[in-house]
Amino acid sequence: MERGILCKEKDGTRLIVVPKKMQNEVIRKKHDYGHFGVRKTEELVSREYYVENLKEKIRKVIDNCVECILIEQKKGKKEGFLHPLDKDETLDKLRVQQQTFGSPQRIISDRNAAFTSKDFQDYCEQEGITLYTITAGQPRGNGQGERIHQIIISVISKLSADDSTKWYKQVSKVQRCLNSTWQRSIGVTPFELLFGTKMKDEDEEIMKLIEEEEGMN
Questions:
Q1: In this structure, are residues 55 and 42 in contact, taking their beta carbons and an 8 Å threshold?
Q2: Residue ranges with strand state E in 29-148
Q3: Prediction pTM value
Q4: Which residues contact 119 (CB under 8 A, 6 or more apart)?
Q5: Which residues form the Integrase catalytic domain (predicted)?
Q6: Cα–chain center distance at 58
Q7: In terms of C-beta density within 10 A (0-12 exposed, 13-18 middle, 19 or more buried), how is residue 7 classed?
Q8: pLDDT (tens digit, 9 = 90+) per residue, 82-122?
């Protein structure tokens, strides 16, 4: 017991045991964080909480998620267009990143003018960056990039389901979701890989609800 709350030790981490009548609410809160699928939602929940038969309960919550149902029905329809980055603006973004993280070893891009311009190629040569451009019309040439694009588009669509014209307001939230979510390809979250520690992302609202619930029992 900790502060009157029942906890369970798992792999050296202390998890809060969620009361049965609060389990759906806890799962829904974590799922709504980014409207991810079962595996990612499971990772988000099990980071802080213990719920028996978690995967099965997550599936039921996702199957009844209105936003997920509506977006799945819309797949394949184009709602609008994004504005491409200007050539000079692309280099500005790289220079901002360079100030904190240095230059990357390589860049994989499409053949947009922003990446095939002489200025961009000169920058890559100056910084010792190897530039790979994928074949036009062959997005599978950059499978990892295309996969993350699909995830980003899907999650933003679900988060902005009430007003799709305000999708841009969800970008920073989606970025935080992805950076703090376990990725199979690297075995940790991107945040942990880069900084060596987990992103602090405690849900104080859920903690408060559980404390109130335990206090009534």
A1: yes
A2: 49-50, 106-109, 130-133
A3: 0.50
A4: 87, 88, 91
A5: 39-198
A6: 18
A7: middle
A8: 555 565 888 888 999 898 889 999 998 888 888 888 999 99
